[in-house]
Amino acid sequence: MLADLAQALGCALITVRRLLKPIGYFRSYTHNAKWYTLPASPQFNREGIWHHRGIGFSKHGSLTATILYLVARSPAGLSARELAEKLQHPCHAVLTHLHKDAELDRVRVASQFRYLCTEQPMNRRQREQSAVQQPPSPSTPLSAQAAVLVLVEYIKNPELSFEQLADNLQKQRNVAVAAESIRRFFAEQSLKKTPETPTPGP
User: Fold this and answer.
1) Which of the residues 24, 40, 126, 201 could staple to 116 if both were Cys, CB 3.0 to 4.6 A apart?
2) DSSP secondary structure letters along 144-155
3) Full-model pTM
4) What pLDDT, on a 0 to 100 scale, did the predictor assign at position 140?
């Protein structure tokens, strides 16, 4: 922290800031931005985040700037829980302010909000993708987009079971659907499923 540096150097805080400016530094997005580190120290992950002893640093700057960066690059937006997991820091209050100030859009999916960027066409794509992010439920019918993705996956892999189709969609396209919803869709559309290949014995 600046106070520690000032004490070690025997100079004023304003002098420490002046000395740091030409060297460069990152300020933490946690702990009220009180912690500083030199540019060569962080080992940022692919999203530009680094944690050291519970202190979070971001190459994007502040907590607000980092949230905006992460949301803008998420195909279906991000929930407060997902952001907290990435940042290892709660961010409900910041998200509320960003939405209130029209810097983020949001949609309700199941029982939680997903936060979206405000710029088009990304906002439209995130809204479309978030519509198929509902937690899978046997009673939930497939959306039109999910139905198309199911058919595409089935055409590519007709030997897969309904459970395997659902698993593929989750892993490859990040689309959550229930196997029973796929089964019901096939029945409603009078689609005949190719018999599943028996699992070989030991």
Assistant:
1) 126
2) HHHHHHHHHHHH
3) 0.65
4) 64
Instruction: Please give the torsion angle defined by the CA atoms of residues 77, 79, 81 and 85, in that order, rounded to the nearest 10 degrees.
Output: 10
Partners of residue 108 on adjacent β-strands: 113
Q: How many CB atoms lie within 10 A of CB 124?
A: 11
List of the chain residues with pLDDT < 70: 133-140, 174, 193-202
List phi, psi (to 5°) of 101: -90, 10
> Encoding tokens for residue 34?
């009180």
Could you read off the pLDDT of 47-97 as tens digits, one per residue? 999 999 999 999 999 999 999 999 999 999 999 989 999 999 999 999 999
Q: Give the DSSP letter string of 59-97.
A: TT-SHHHHHHHHHHT-TT-EEHHHHHHHHTS--HHHHHH
DSSP state of 53: T
CB atoms < 10 A from the CB of 182, how many?
25
The tokens of 85 are what?
Answer: 């997991």
